Each structure stands twice: as structure tokens, then as C-alpha cells.
Amino acid sequence: MKTQNTHFDVIIVGGGLAGLCNAIHLSKFNKKVLLIEKNEYPKHKVCGEYISNEVLPYLAFLEFNPFDFGAVKIDKFQLSTTNNQLISAELPLGGFGISRYKLDFELLQKAIQNGVIIMQDLVTNIQFINDIFEVETKKNEHLTSKIVIGAFGKRSYLDVAMQRDFIQKKPPYLGVKIHVKGNFPNDLVALHNFKGGYCGVSKVENNEINLCYITNLSSFKKHKNIECFQENVVFKNRCLKEIFENSKSLFDEPLTISQISFESKTLVENHIIMCGDAAGMIHPLCGNGMSMAIQSAQIASKLILNYLEGKILTRNALKNEYISKWNHQFKWRLKAGHFIAMLFRQDEIANFLLQILRKLPFLLPTIIRQTHGKPLKN
Q1: 117 CB-near residues (< 8 Å, 6+ apart)
Q2: Are 15 and 276 in contact (CB under 8 A)?
Q3: Single pTM value for the model
């Protein structure tokens, strides 16, 4: 069935965190918003599922409280290295745990309540002609809008179609995620390193534990399957072995994704404003990707509203302001994330650093702050 209204103020391509937060924000100001998502809701995703508290003021502005849906408060951090040395610290800002399955679904309900039109379809082409976007979908919808936001995740069909630079490079990482039932503190997020990767552990709603690890694809391919890789590599970390062996998986099979890249990305492509993972990804080791996605929506929506209301006079000014504000908020933490991840890929250096942190524990919260930001004003 064809969409009756085909022209919108804003079309958002992708219904993850960035797409949904943009949709809710813009619809609060009575903008006509269409969100196009190729998958059905809800859907589990490979994700650390820990979010820094820096986003709470913005979520409150969107009239969305994650604790209404079972989010778990987290204020402690634990780190282990490949030789099983352990260090703990208080999280400077704290955070919360909630599954993407739950969070995306509840944000969707909020968007629908706000009047956002949701379309399940695959966008196949976006053209910018005479200052208007023309959007085509697999189901043969032909739509137009003043603004298009690209919130289509890490790697997508549109990235290939637009020949974005990063898409030409083979992604070197594999991500694996499962939910389990077992014993783990509610207020703790842990990061346990193993040779060639690391695993995040934290509670989400319903007393479930999220286990999500990332590893070099080349390292994984040396083993015949996930079970073999975990037994021979992941479980060399005693903390991880204990958690995995003393818990019960809630998934029939682990979720996996091999298309993970941390290459730099352009923030505006063919006048499309990129948000969330489509704009840039921080290493999961830093545990702040979900927060970045939410905050990128805040930056984009505020500027888009100013443009649509004539406070930003030209499209070029809109694009330049978005690039400037995105870089101001995220560029340093991305660099810090790359540097920290590089250090932890080298076992000897990582173990040496941990020895220093054990002697000078006040340094760990300082390092954590480098990959986190301060709440943006609404």
C-alpha cells in the first residue's frame, strides 16, 4: 500500500537510537517526520548495552525515562587484563544498563505517540535535486523531504551506493553477544580482556546479563566455531570463564556481526546529515557508543529545527554547524578511544599500564572521562 502523504519536513533513514531520538525530538516541535527502518521491531543487536548518564538530561527533555522500563543503575567499573590482573574504580558519571531490544522498542512507542510515521522498508536511492531530497524504497515508494538524516548504522546498502570511503576497507572485527542468567552485581560494568579482544559485562532489565565481546576477525577464523574460540581464547581470562560457565544462555545461538569498522566517516554525504554509527563509532572498549548515538541526535535535531524555522539561513551553514558541533563533542573521545584500544591490543603494554593503575587508582576515572562527555544543554 502506498503512503498517502509523500512529502515530509524530515525523512530519517534508520530506526536505531539516533534515528528514533531524532524522530522524537523533531516531532515534539510539530515537524512532519517519516522514519524508515528495514527491520521489524523489536530486534536484538550486537551491543554493549551500557549507556553513560550524560544522556539522561536529554532523554528527560524527550520525556523518556529508561528506568520506567527496567534500566539498571550502574556506578562501578572493573577491568581485567589478559594475565588476569584486576582493578576496580567508581565511574565518574555513572550509567545504566538496558537492552537494545527493550530500548529501541520503547523509543519507537514514544515516536509513534508523538505522531511520527513509521515505514518498514529498505531505502534504495536518495537524490538531492533543486534543494529537495527524493527518496526511493524497495517497495517502490517515492518520497520527498526538506531534510534527510542518515541513521542507518555501521554499514549499509546506502553506504555502498554512495561509495563512502570507509566502506571500501574490509572490516577487521567480529562482535558476539549473548544474554544470560547468572550471578553478577547490578551496579557493575566490567571489561575483561583476552588475547585479540575484550568482553563487556553488565546487567540489563529483567535481571539478565549482557555479554558482548569484540575480537579480531583474523584471530577468530583460526578456530572452527564460536564455542572453540571461547574455550581456547576467551576463557583464558578467568573472570570470563567463571561468568560463562556459571550462567545459562537465553539465546538459542549467540548473535554475531562481522561488519565492524572504526574508520573515520564523513559527517555529511550528498547533503545527508549522518547520525549515530553512520557518522562515527568509538571502540566498544570505551563503552560509550550508545551515548554518542543519542547525543548526535540532539545536535542534529536542534540545528535542523533552527534551519527549518529560518534561524540558520542556508543549507551550507547547517552542514558546517553540524560538522563543527559534532567534532567538538566527539572528535577527542574518538581519538582517545582509538589510542586506548591500541594500547590494550598489546598485551605487555596493557599489563604494564594496569600495574601503574593499581598503584595510582585515581588515574582510571581520569582515563574514563577522556572517552565520555558532559551532558549537552537542551
Answers
A1: 3, 5, 8, 33, 34, 35
A2: no
A3: 0.89
Phi and psi angles of residue 114, each rounded to the nearest 5 degrees, phi first: -80, -5
Terminus-to-terminus CA distance in the chain, angstroms?
Answer: 38
Question: What distance in Å separates the CA atoms of residue 356 and residue 14, rounded to the nearest whole number?
Answer: 43
Give the span between the Cα atoms of 200 and 162, in whole angstroms.
33
> Contact at 8 Å (CB) between 125 and 137?
no
* 3-class secondary structure, 29: coil
What torsion, rounded to 10 degrees, do the Cα atoms 292, 17, 39, 262 define? 0
- In this structure, the chain runs to a length of 378
CA angle 240, 258, 193 (to 5 degrees): 25
pLDDT tens by residue, 64-104: 999 999 999 999 999 888 888 888 888 878 899 999 999 99
The closest alpha carbon to 33, from 61, 14, 8, 56, belongs to: 8
Which of 270, 330, 335, 255 has its CA nearest to residue 294?
330
336 grid coordinates = 582517545
CA distance 178 to 200: 11
Please give the domain boundaries of the chain with CATH numbers for all domains: 7-43+101-170+261-370 (3.50.50.60)
Closest CA to 287 of 341, 221, 232, 366: 341
